[in-house]
Amino acid sequence: MIRVRPSVRKITTALLASLALLPGIAIEQELELDYRMNEQVVQVPAGPDHRAMLETTVFRPNGPGPFPLLVINHGKDPGRPSAQPRDRFYHMAAAFVKRGYAVMVPMRQGFANSTGRYRDRGCDMTANGYLQAEDIGSTLEFARAQPWIDGEHIVVAGQSYGGLATMALGTQHQSGVRGLINFAGGLRDDSDRCAWRSALVSAFAEYGANSRVPSLWMYGENDSLFGPDLANRLHAAFGQAGGKARLVEFPSFKRDAHGMLASRDGEKIWLDDTMRFLKGVGMPTEVLHQVPPPPTPPRTDFAKLDDVEAVPFLSENGRRAYADYLTKMTPRAFAVSPSGAWTWAEEGEAPDARALATCSAKSSQPCKLYSIDDYVVWNGNRVEAAEKASMTASIAAPADASAPGAVGSTVPAANTIPSAR
């Protein structure tokens, strides 16, 4: 997390650009719940007398359980916490649901649609971690009371500020928690008179001195917030104080390793080390279910990907934007409208759905996808029909738990209509 400069989420959001109506302005779009992993949003009681409610995303396999549990904890964007979108960590959640886990992603007090007040102790990084860990503890209390949770097999992970909070949680006795995973954990404050690096070292030293749970740490070479030198200082302070942690330093990841966990391609970095760690703490790692992949529209022969002049409806500004889009990293998507509106989205969750939703919100006429990743999907009216079918498929739940394509189903998934999602 960082207080002054843009966070990775905001950098990604800024890449969701639509200049046809409001140049340079991007808007966040809430993604539909994904029935393929039985996604739902629940309210978890927290805070004094449980008066606050944490907006919490839940993914789980079919069936009654009980399932081992993964709790994933989010970071913090600049600006008001209440303006921060609901986190899902979809790609990590999918990998764990495949292995029979339930996954919970709580938005802590004051974030997104959670009630309560966001609490902050300025440059006191130790206290900040402890405060945020209280809501993780409330989530675990709620989870253990659910009949579909195996309360003896729990792992807690966190990214950025959520990683700091996860390590603070490790100083407490939490029944059933067998391991912690720290993805680029920390809290950065560039305000005046805050020696935030030293404050972080002190925080991790205290957490290490009181640590009760083994942990896995993952920091990237090109992390824009917590680079290799600082990551090693934090790990050394934690270990020298008595904490048990393995540090994995992975090579540069795309533009910024700080966003690795949210990337579709991040699994190539974190999966193997995470599975080895889980085996070591007695957590399951075997793949039990298949999560059906999201439907995508087929490649067409409408034009070559780099043929800027072939893209319909675009003004000169739009053509320059499409040329810029071609330089972006995958996953990515570009959407257009007869009104002249256009949008592209890069990285993060479902860039195709985000591009369509944002374009449609800013256009007087329907938007369609022109390109996904490294190929063109534009095909006139046939694409419109596929998109409509996709939107229906993406939000409609199966009739029962054994329906084709449901997570954990024993019925093979049928071929789906090519779609834009």
What does this structure look like?
The chain has 421 residues and is an alpha/beta fold. Helix content is 29%, strand content 18%. It has ten helices and twelve strands. It has helices at residues 8-14, 90-98, 125-144, 161-169, 196-209, 228-240, 267-280, 316-325, 351-361, 381-395, and strands at residues 40-46, 52-59, 67-73, 102-106, 149-159, 177-183, 215-220, 245-250, 332-336, 342-346, 368-372, 375-376. It has an eight-stranded mixed sheet with strand order 1-2-4-3-5-6-7-8, with helices on both faces. Helix 3 packs across helix 4, helix 3 packs across helix 5 (196-209) and helix 5 (196-209) packs parallel to helix 6. The radius of gyration is 22 Å and the shape is globular.
